[in-house]
Amino acid sequence: MIQGPDYPNQQLRAVSLETFFHGRFAVPNRLEQVQERFSARLPNLFVPSSKDNEPVALRPYHLRPNDHHESLAIAINQATYVSFAYPGHRVFLQNALELLHPSLEIFGVKELTRVVYRYDNEVAVTRHRLNPSTFGRLEGIVA
């Protein structure tokens, strides 16, 4: 009898294109311009909460649509597009650039210091299969 994989591929939880730049005071001063520019597409504003020992300015604000399938996250040193319903790379990149490029222009960003593509997967391990050998098999997957 052929058995399938122990841990079949799970749906992506989120995919993001993160752009980082040298922190700019122009970002908080121009957040309203970005919010107005994308208010039809992203009408909901989520304000960051503080975390222990992390500067509040580095915590991003999020603009999201009513169905929360995407987000534009903005902090003093970054602009990030997140998709919670991954449509494939080509559409993802188009959606990301439609939001990121104008945002970076509004903030006057001329140079990026880092660009990150992040694919966030979730690997579910059921309780009935949870034993010490399970973690040995996950060692190569989990960094």
Keywords:
143 residues; alpha+beta; TATA-Binding Protein; six-stranded antiparallel beta sheet; 3 helices; disordered N terminus
* Low-pLDDT segments, ≥5 res: 1-8
Main sheet characteristics: 6 strands, antiparallel
What's the mean pLDDT score? 84
CA distance, first residue to last residue: 33 Å
What's the total helix number? 3
Which series of helices and strands comes N to C? Answer: EHEEEEHEH
> How many domains comprise the coordinates?
1
Number of E-state strands? 6
Helix content: 25-40%
Assembly type of the shown chains? single chain
Q: DSSP strand (E) fraction?
A: 25-35%
How does the helix and strand content classify structurally? alpha+beta
Q: Which sequence of strands runs across the widest sheet?
A: 2-3-4-5-1-6
Instruction: State the name of the first-level CATH class.
Output: Alpha Beta
CATH topology: TATA-Binding Protein
Rg value: 19 Å
CATH architecture: 2-Layer Sandwich
Description:
The protein is of the alpha+beta class and 143 residues long. The chain has a single domain (12-138), classed as TATA-Binding Protein (2-Layer Sandwich). It has helices spanning 26-37, 89-106, 132-138, and strands spanning 12-20, 44-46, 61-64, 70-75, 78-83, 114-121. It has a six-stranded antiparallel β-sheet with strand order 2-3-4-5-1-6, with helices on one face. Strand 3 (61-64) and strand 4 (70-75) form a beta hairpin. The longest helix has 18 residues, at 89-106. The model is unreliable at 1-8 (pLDDT under 50).
